[in-house]
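pinning this so it doesn't scroll away 📌
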Amino acid sequence: MIRNAIERLIRPGEQAFAHCDIPCGIYDPKEAQLAAESVEKMMTMIADLGETQSLEHLNSFVRYVQVKEEHAEKVKHQIRIIWGDYFKPTHLEKFPDLHEKVWNIMKTAGACKQGVNLDDAKRLRAEVDEFADMFWKTKA
């Protein structure tokens, strides 16, 4: 009884999540690429639904939007981790437009969360693929 009471008092109220705060060196843009692909797929499925006349279509629409927005946010999260934790000033010598490219990914992912424009999703996927290519070139 006493032990349980003490544990409740010292247990943190919130749980935190992070890639890691130690220099593990384990970075891979694949998660961001898969998330961008998911955004594009959800936008395609939304477009294929057409008008949401039935409850079944409305249900599917809501689910597709939810997944689209979750994955667009996942893109932003994964890109921020790699950009902030992996890339160093020496990488900017090779890719001086890195910061602008990351900024564009953030803006495009935001547009994908706000709307259902398939062109935005295709652009996001291309931008994330370009970022991944830059990442792998620094590993070579």
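📌 and the second one:
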Amino acid sequence: MTQSIDTTCPQGRLTLNLLTSFAQFEREIAGERGREKRAASRRQGFWYGSASPLGYAVVQQKLVVEPQEAAVVRDIFARFLTQPSVTALVQELAERGVTTKRWRTKTAGLKGGATFDRNALYKLLNNRVYLGELFYDGQWHASTHEAIIDRGLWEQVHERKASRARRTGVSNRQQSNEEVFWLKGRVFGTDQHAMTPWISSSRRGRHYTYYVPQQDIALGAGQSGLPRLPAGELHAAVLAFLHQGLRNPDTWFAALAPSLTQRADFDRESITQRLQNFEQTFDLLFPGTQRRLFRMLVDKVVVGKDQIVIQIRPQGLMELIAELLNLQV
């Protein structure tokens, strides 16, 4: 860093390359030593982090069973086998006032203590720390802390969980999420939360697709008070809205920027005619092209208890007009 090296000559470039290589070597050695130290500490049962899992406390950097919390964890595992659904278990935990781990940060603040939702419940049920294991070197290993859940109960719970498994998304099916859920990321409830693409379990060999409120996924069906929308029906409603707007685009023109509508070559009559002609051929387009136009024209779909509000994307409409008229925008 302090020595001046003349890199205009071969000897200087060789020196610089040698120094850089040794610096990279030293960096990799330091990283490897750090990883080995952390793995060795894990093998000895040391816990890193301020928050321990529910059921444990951290004493001298090691996990120690906290009897009252451990009883809650065992009860959750046992009740998972007896309750008819995860939603029922989440509701029961909420009624009993059972919360997630509550801990104090290094700055003396309190965190955690939230009501269990589906995500928090599954995180607890999948945590192999309760089997007396810790995660390092890319996999779980036996550790020195005491297990809270015996392996027999663990296996029963996970067999039951696998039998209840539901599918969200369709990323490993023949079609991708984007091919099935044309409005992914653009459908919101009146609670301002995005609605999640959801594919049902197989029913008579068929899967059904929905946009589901996030609160219903986290806390159980019906908790949000918003409807669960079949994807096909929502797409059909949006398609009807686009057809209507293309046939009568006056309300859409009001949303366009003056920099476009005030141009000398912006002929409202001609553009209206082009949009109306395009509307007549919309249904004949390939699905991929229709999907692109959905994403281009629809900015947001807001779902309420008894109505759906569709918001057009002005920039997308400008892009469509530019494509139809070959304008520079």
